[in-house]
Design a protein that fits this description.
single chain; 9 helices; alpha+beta; 208 residues; 3-stranded antiparallel sheet
C-alpha cells in the first residue's frame, strides 16, 4: 500500500500566512489583475513577490494551475469557513500566464514564447505578400514585426541554422527524451511544410 505523502510544515505555515493576511493578499491579486487587464507589465511586481515570499508565490501559482496535490492538501488542512479564501485566489486565473512566465525564469527562460498571432496581407506596389507577426510570452507581447515573406523565410532559415549549431554543440549532453521527441516532430512538420512551400513556388514559376 502506497504511503500517503506528509504535508510539509512549510506548506502549512504558508497556508496559515494566507489565512491571516487574506485581505492584503486578495487586494494584491485584484490590483495585479486590474493592471494586467489594462495592458500593463506586472512581471516586475511578481518577481518582487517571489523574491520576498517565494512559498506564497508558489502556492498561488499552484492554486491557479489547479495542482491536484496542493488542492488535496488544502482540503485536508483548511477549515471549511476559510476555504473561500483559496477559492477566491483561484478566481484570478487571468494571472496564471504571468506567474508561469516568472517561474520559468528560474530555469533560464527569458520571455518564453507561448503563442503567435499573425495576419497576412499583400503589397500591391511591391507585389510581395507580407506577414504581420506578434510573439506572445504568456499574455505579454514581446515582439511585433511586419515583413515580406521572403525575409520571413530568411529568418526561419537563420533560426534553423542556429538550432543546428546548438544541437551539434550539446548532442553529447543528456537531453530529456520528451524534448527530443518534440524536436523531431517539429522538424518533420518543417520538412512537410517546406515541401508544400516548394510545390507552390514551382506552380508560381510555371505560371510565369
Amino acid at each position: 500500500m502506497k504511503k500517503e505523502e506528509e504535508i510539509p510544515k512549510s506548506f502549512i505555515d504558508t497556508v496559515e500566512f494566507v489565512i491571516n493576511n487574506s485581505n492584503i493578499i486578495l487586494d494584491m491579486l485584484s490590483n495585479l489583475a486590474m493592471e494586467h487587464m489594462l495592458g500593463r507589465d506586472i512581471r516586475e511586481s511578481l518577481r518582487s513577490l517571489k523574491e520576498r515570499h517565494e512559498l506564497l508565490f508558489k502556492l498561488i501559482r499552484d492554486i491557479l494551475v489547479k495542482n491536484k496535490k496542493v488542492l488535496n492538501w488544502l482540503s485536508e488542512i483548511v477549515e471549511e469557513d476559510k476555504r473561500w479564501i483559496f477559492s477566491k485566489i483561484g478566481d484570478y486565473s487571468i494571472l496564471y500566464d504571468e506567474f508561469e512566465a516568472v517561474r520559468l525564469e528560474d530555469f533560464g527562460f527569458l520571455n518564453p514564447i507561448s503563442s503567435i498571432i499573425y495576419n497576412v496581407s499583400y503589397n500591391e506596389d511591391l507585389t510581395v505578400p507580407f506577414l504581420d507577426i506578434e510573439l506572445i510570452s504568456y499574455g505579454k507581447k514581446v515582439l511585433h514585426f511586419k515583413e515580406g515573406i521572403d525575409h520571413i523565410l530568411w529568418l526561419t532559415s537563420s533560426l534553423m541554422e542556429r538550432v543546428l549549431e546548438c544541437l551539434k554543440e550539446y548532442k553529447d549532453k543528456p537531453i530529456h527524451k520528451e524534448t527530443i521527441y518534440l524536436m523531431r516532430e517539429q522538424i518533420e512538420e518543417i520538412i512537410k511544410n517546406s515541401k508544400e512551400t516548394l510545390k507552390i513556388f514551382e506552380e508560381m514559376i510555371t505560371k510565369k
